[in-house]
Design a protein that fits this description.
Elements lengths: L4 E6 L13 E3 L13 E3 L10 H15 L3 E2 L6 E5 L5 E7 L2 E6 L2 H11 L2 E6 L2 E2 L2 E5 L3 E5 L1 H10 L29 H14 L7 H8 L7 H16 L3 E6 L6 E6 L12 E8 L2 E9 L7 H25 L8 E5 L2 H8 L4 H4 L8 H7 L3 E5 L16 H10 L2 E3 L2
Parallel strand pairs: 13-16, 16-17
Antiparallel strand pairs: 1-7, 1-8, 2-3, 4-5, 5-6, 6-7, 9-10, 10-11, 11-12, 12-18, 13-14, 14-15
Helix pairs in contact: 4-5, 4-6, 7-8
Protein name: Reverse transcriptase Ty1/copia-type domain-containing protein
Amino acid sequence: MKWKIHQLDVKSAFLNEYIEEEVYVEQLFDFAVRNHENKVLKLKKALYGLKQAPLAWNSCIDKYFQDNGFTRCLHEYSLYIKVHTNEDILIVCLFVDELILTGSLFESFKKAMSLEFEMTDIGLMSYYLGQEVKRMEEGIFIFQESYTNEILMKFNMFDCNSVNTSMESKTKLSKFDDGEKVNPTFFKSLVVSLRYLTCTRPYIFFAVRVVSHFIEAPTSTHFKVTRRILRYLKGTIDLGLFYSSFNDFNLVGYCDSDYAEDIDDRKSKIDFVFFLGDCVISWSSKKQAIVHVSTREVEYVATISCTCHAIWLRRLLNQINLPQIEATTICVDNKSAQTLAKNPVYHDRSKHIDTRYHFLRKCIAKKDVELKYVMSHDQVTYIFTKPFKFEDFQRLRSILGMKKKN
């Protein structure tokens, strides 16, 4: 919609709210009241470091928003919406003491906030929680170039040779690897740093997820694979997600799973990604809780998780005036899972599946979602399930909307 995105910061946020509990603190040595050195002070307002402080601040800012005509989103508690008409709307996202706002009413909101709280008006958003934002005529580019450079410097890989994929194809790792032991604290720090990069680089999700399984007892083999991710980042520092301006607000999901790919516990993965128009807005890749006995069952359960996320996104979009009138299309590449979702076929071979998973049929009947078959070649979430050769990796990466910074 070509709205501008502004950023505000509340100064000393935790000191704004009165606390309900009785809390006492000792007097500081150099600031004790003369002749009352043995007495303690009773707190009226929260202090930084106090356990009650975050909740007290959240209650304070939440009360302010709701007293001033905002509606708290029931599906995302950090989101507040104020609607005058379909064209006059203000959307505010709260992260502790930082606020992101967009819409058409932000100037009056800024003035009102500055009267209530001591604020820092950062202006147009350009850097937020390690993510850089570049506004262009065609849309918005979100990337983490500075953060990537910091990681490379921190782990002595800034001058390394780059590679063209984040993981070699056909790579298989196991926790029973007999390689030389690596410092787990150092390895954990590296993996956690890489995990935050997936905020703007979903295409490295698979590689980061794989090495995350070995943070408790890493070996030189695991470390070598992790270093390759850094080498890949070295050659793609300026890649990020591009969100173009468009009028198509149709939500579409892609869902996939691998069958028993983990060679240690044989559990499968749940992978899905959602697009609003041509832009990727949400993605997930995680291990399923139990071991399944067939590819049909694995794909079916993964589709359930994708459907749950689709319902949540539909409700969220509806609350910010982007209602999804038609059923949300979920693309799967397994016809038997699609058939099982539509009607209770294969009953003898699927009756062991927990009944809670069959709520997918109700969602299809209510036309909240519809399943669509896609060829494996067009399954976007394949990039979350296995390592690829460069040509396929680059093709899937571009579908996700990754571009170089201009």
